[in-house]
Structures are given as C-alpha cells and as structure tokens.
C-alpha cells in the first residue's frame, strides 16, 4: 500500500517511550505475527500480489522520516497495546478528522514516490465519498464541505488500464494540471487514506 501508513515510533514516544513497548518488541510478539498474517491474507483476497512485507516498513536515520511505519489496522492494534485510553483517543480522532495527530507529529503519513514517508500538512478531509460507475470499475469521488467534488486519479487510471504512478508524474509536470492536484483524506474501513485527486467539474 502507498496511500497511508501509521507512524508507530511517534505513537510509542507519545505514550512514554518505555523500552519494553518499542514497536519492534510488539511486532516480535506471537499474537502480533498472527495478526499480520491474518491481515495479509485478507488484503491478498483483494490483491493476490500483496505481500506481508508491505504492512510494516522501517526507515533508518535520525531525520524526521526515520522510524517504524505500519498499516492503519496494525496501528490501531498497537495503540491498544500501548494504552486503552490512547487507543480510544486514536479512534475518536480518526472519526473526527480522518487524521491522527500528536502535538505537531502526524501519526498518519503518506509515502512519496520514493517510497519514503512525507509529512501530510492540512490535507482536507472528505465529508463523504461516492463510487460512480462510468465505465469499467467504479471511480472514487470525494465530496468536501461546500459540496465540492474531486475524482481519484488512481481509480480513473485503473478504469482505463494505464499506469497510475506514471500518469501522476505527467500531471505534476503539466502546468495545466499541476495546480489542480490535491491530496484529500478519505475515510475507509481500514482508516483514513490520502488520495491524489482532481476537481470533478
């Protein structure tokens, strides 16, 4: 997945940073390994090529992008491990904003084209989303406050059978479209995910 990952390192620090609660210790737990396997099987049902290695990513280095990142469902499970109060707080924040924050540190991050986390700042959250049948697979449409509608570039590319990443790169380089591109947080069953979109009108 490349739409959204949870920063487990920030979560651990926010809950006191006790050594025994480090992300690597939780990930080594037998119950956690079973959870990872179960989630991986579920996601492979949607995409046979999906591998468990995509559920957890570790980035080395002392900069702000270093740390352990995980799929949103694993992040919620880790929050429960850290603290029941923190777990409920995370769920409430996701419901309210679609983006979990601790002070100035975002727990939910987006992976850039280089595969490394990039900070999400002030991404608008959709108040609802719809699936529109035009041709082929359904296309995701996000609705913002004021009833502004935006369409997912990825869904359009998949519907017409072209490479999403290549098309996004072309759009970012095209002066006619680059200023129209916007990241919108869309709430899914697996958590909020930032999706690159274009205005529908």
UniProtKB/TrEMBL annotation:
Residues 1-97 form the KilA-N domain. This is KilA-N domain-containing protein. It comes from the Bacteria. It comes from Pseudodesulfovibrio karagichevae.
């Amino acid at each position: 997945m490349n739409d959204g990952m949870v920063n487990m390192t920030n979560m651990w620090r926010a809950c006191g940073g006790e050594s025994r609660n480090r992300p690597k210790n939780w990930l080594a737990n037998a119950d956690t390994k079973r959870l990872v396997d179960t989630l991986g099987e579920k996601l492979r049902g949607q995409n046979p090529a999906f591998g468990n290695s995509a559920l957890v990513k570790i980035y080395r280095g002392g900069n702000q992008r270093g740390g352990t990142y995980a799929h949103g469902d694993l992040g919620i499970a880790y929050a429960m491990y850290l603290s029941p109060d923190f777990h409920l707080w995370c769920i409430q924040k996701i419901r309210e904003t679609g983006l979990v924050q601790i002070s100035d540190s975002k727990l939910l991050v987006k992976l850039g084209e280089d595969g490394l986390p990039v900070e999400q700042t002030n991404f608008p959250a959709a108040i609802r989303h719809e699936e529109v049948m035009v041709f082929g697979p359904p296309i995701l449409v996000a609705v913002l406050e004021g009833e502004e509608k935006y369409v997912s570039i990825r869904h359009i590319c998949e519907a017409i059978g072209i490479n999403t990443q290549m098309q996004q790169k072309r759009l970012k380089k095209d002066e006619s479209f680059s200023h129209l591109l916007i990241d919108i947080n869309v709430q899914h069953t697996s958590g909020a995910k930032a999706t690159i979109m274009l205005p529908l009108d």
